[in-house]
Amino acid sequence: MGLGTHQPGVIEHVESQGWDLDFYMTSFYNLAKKRKRVAAVEGLDASAEVFDPADREAMCRAIRATARPCLAFKVLAAGRNAGSPESRRAAFKYAYANIKPADAVVVGVYQKDRDELAEDVAVAREILLGKAGA
User: By C-alpha distance, which of 39, 42, 49, 6 is closest to 24?
Assistant: First the structure.
């Protein structure tokens, strides 16, 4: 059984209470810091959603502090960190450098305009295998 959260404090609390969990789903961005507004649901411009880079640092500290495996998601900040090959590579590089070796990255893809899945896999392989350009 796992637990998913956008808030690093939830992981810290659960760890302090000794809950019997197998893994965590951990968002790099805390969209629950204030009233969540989902642009797609409310018909807002997507810029209404705030993706604070400090959030990922806090979550990565929580990820590294637990021995349980973590599945990190929102590493591309809902596409905001995927506007160019360089920004996508930087986001993946940050993720893999700041989670534990047994952890994983979960990434959503939007296949309409290009093969994002293949692009993301290529970047992840380069970084994880230590190939040139990583």
Answer: 6
Give the single-character DSSP code of 31.
Answer: T
Measuring CA to CA, how many Å separate 63 from each of 36, 92, 95, 111, 133?
23, 16, 11, 29, 26
Q: Which residues fall within 8 angstroms of residue 56, CB to CB, at 6 or more apart?
A: 28, 29, 75, 94, 98
Q: What tens digit of pLDDT does each residue of 65-79 get?
A: 999 999 999 999 988
Longest dimension (CA), the chain: 46
User: Is the separation of the CB atoms in 56 and 96 below 8 Å?
Assistant: no
Give the Cβ contact number of residue 121 at 10 Å.
13
Mean pLDDT across the stretch 13-25?
Answer: 97
DSSP string computed for 81-126: T-SSHHHHHHHHHHHHHHS-TT-EEE-----SSS-HHHHHHHHHHH
Encode pLDDT of 91-123 as tens digits.
999 999 999 999 999 999 888 988 999 999 999
pTM for this predicted structure = 0.84
